[in-house]
Specification:
The complex is a heterodimer of chains A (about 250) and B (about 260). Chain A has about 250 residues and is mostly helical. Chain A has one domain. Helices cover about 85% and strands about 0% of the residues of chain A. Chain A has nine helices and no strands. In chain A, helix 4 runs antiparallel to helix 6 and helix 6 packs across helix 8. The longest helix of chain A is centred in the middle third of the chain and has 40 residues. With about 260 residues, chain B is α/β, with parallel strands linked by helices. Chain B contains ten helices and ten strands. The two termini of chain B are about 35 Å apart. The chains are: A mainly alpha (about 250), B alpha/beta (about 260). At the A-B interface, helix 4 and helix 5 of A face helix 2 and helix 3 of B. The site of magnesium ion has 5 residues of chain B, from helix 1. The site of magnesium ion (MG) has 5 residues of chain B, from helix 1.
């Protein structure tokens, strides 16, 4: 199959996904399960990575602005901006694509090769709607919260790095992060996050759902899923940045 | 009655079914037999609507599958139960949740009523105290039984089993065969079983359809299978010396 066919099949899949759930109580149960599996279980890695990335960005900036004509508050300012604009929404989405994407495609793929999806269909259940819609809703609901947390922790990580290394003063840093606060940037980041969340839930689902063969193919599909999810996020990021900020 | 007429199915240019016709009646255990790769699973999956045949008619008590809309397909499928070759239990759900799942999805019942029904069918397949276990914690035979319990929990009109006793010891295999035959009689279902286990064919094959090279090569009952002179089926069924001897004994006795 060529790319066009895959893209077509992906959108046909989405049409099946966006149907009214056959039973709301079952949907709700699945939704809570997915919020836990896709959201809460990613909390740890996001906390860990965003905190340290924020610290590294602050240290790097500090080391590169030893020119006395550049004010020290630039460090806080630059850390804040890069966390809000790119590191939290894009970088963390790539991390999630790896962690959650492989989980989604391997769990759905395993269901496919062990005929569990056939079993759903035989019962008269719309398997795509049942399996994928709760994942999309869970991601759309939870990832903005994760990304906001990542922004906060990244900025905090930068502050903490200053205290630990003594490379800059806390007062300068705090002044820097308060400087020129633009709420539109947060909105921009959240719009990006929502789009990435949709991509993270659906592209791996596509790869898992249409897998053929056995466990080897499931493994291959989840690698493919992570690669394609990341590529699409990076490309979309480029266009969205141009559209929303350009 | 399930009626199949002139069914054709191919994969990437390779013909698997080349015009198979058959009828399956109520309250009978119908069996599809044939060598590995002869298309038994494909045939069953065509009946279930998981494969779309290129040609042919499949009708369930007068309802022609091809004439139905997606929504009506789903409704028809709620009248079917399927025991897959590998069990196909949902491995993220416990035994109880697995069996309760179709009820939750389609039956308007309280939790207690559903639990009651789950325990009834579990008892029916001789399983107790496994409600909280996950499929991975069960033996193969137990998984098969849970799978049967799940298939009958909605009181289906049509029951399909793909090699329900493959990989089981002879005793458990016989237990499962008898169980399927009993519930077929009890609930007056139309049951279609794929098998290449000669024991179960002899035990419960009230109607047997032999697939070979994509066509129906023979049709008859387990009584007739001893007497038949059809070379294809004789070669298939009596490939083992044991069964050759059994056949001799049977033919001598009935003389
Ligand atoms: N989804 C598929 N895509 C392509 N070819 C398939 C597919 N399913 C089955 N086939 C082919 O159809 C033929 C029949 O397969 P089928 O699974 O029906 O055999 P079977 O009679 O059930 O065998 P077994 O007793 O081993 O289960 C095989 O040659 C198989 O390669
Ligand atoms: Mg088979």
């Amino acid at each position: 199959m060529n790319y066009i066919e895959h893209i077509g099949k992906y959108f046909i899949m989405l049409k099946q996904v966006f149907k009214k759930p056959q039973k709301w109580s079952v949907f709700k149960e699945m939704l809570f399960r997915e919020i836990e599996d896709l959201g809460l279980k990613s909390l740890g890695i996001i906390v860990f990575i965003s905190f340290f990335v924020g610290g590294v960005v602050a240290i790097q900036t500090a080391l590169n602005v030893d020119n006395p004509f550049i004010p020290k508050y630039t460090i806080g300012f630059a850390t804040k901006r890069s966390m809000i604009l790119e590191f939290a929404p894009t970088f963390m989405s790539i991390i999630l694509a790896g962690k959650v994407g492989s989980y989604i495609s391997s769990s759905i793929g395993t269901m496919r090769v062990t005929e569990q999806i056939d079993a759903l269909e035989v019962m008269g259940i719309n398997s795509l709607n049942y399996l994928v819609l709760p994942k999309i809703i869970a991601a759309l609901f939870f990832y903005p919260l994760l990304i906001l947390l990542a922004m906060f922790l990244g900025i905090f990580g930068g502050y903490y790095a200053g205290i630990l290394t003594g490379l800059f003063y806390s007062e300068d840093y705090i002044y820097g992060i308060q400087l020129d606060f633009n709420p539109y940037f947060i909105r921009y980041a959240l719009i990006k996050t929502l789009i990435f969340a949709f991509v993270i839930a659906t592209i791996p689902a596509y790869h898992g759902y249409y897998v053929k063969g056995g466990s080897l193919e499931v493994g291959r599909a989840s690698t493919q899923a992570v690669v394609w999810t990341s590529v699409v996020i990076i490309l979309l990021n480029y266009f969205l940045t141009q559209m929303l900020l350009g | 009655m399930i009626e199949v007429k002139n069914l054709y199915k191919e994969f990437d240019g390779i013909q698997v079914l080349k015009g198979v016709s058959a009828t399956f009646e109520k309250g009978k255990t119908n069996m599809i037999i044939g060598q590995s790769g002869s298309g038994k699973t494909v045939f069953l999956k065509c009946l279930l609507g998981l494969h779309t045949p290129e040609k042919g008619i499949i009708s369930f008590d007068g309802r022609n599958y091809a004439d139905l809309k997606t929504k009506q397909h789903r409704q028809l499928r709620q009248e079917m139960g399927m025991v897959f070759q590998g069990g196909a239990l949902y491995d993220s759900l416990t035994v109880e949740e697995n069996i309760m799942f179709p009820l939750k999805m389609f039956a308007d019942k309280t939790f207690d009523e559903m639990l009651d029904r789950v325990n009834t069918v579990l008892k029916r397949v001789n399983l107790e105290n496994v409600n909280a276990k996950f499929p991975a914690e069960l033996s193969g035979g137990m998984q098969k039984r849970v799978s049967i319990a799940r298939a009958i929990v909605m009181n289906p009109k049509y029951l399909f089993c793909d090699e329900p006793n493959s990989g089981l010891d002879p005793i458990t295999a016989t237990v499962i065969d008898n169980l399927i035959q009993e519930i077929t009689k009890e609930y007056q279902m139309i049951t279609v079983i794929n098998s290449h286990d000669m024991n179960s064919v002899m035990e419960i094959g009230e109607k047997i359809i032999f697939l070979k090279d994509g066509v129906k090569a023979w049709e008859g009952s387990n009584k007739e299978i001893f007497k038949t002179e059809n070379q294809a089926i004789v070669d298939f069924v009596y490939s083992s010396n044991l069964f050759k001897k059994v056949r001799q004994v049977y033919l001598n006795e009935s003389k």
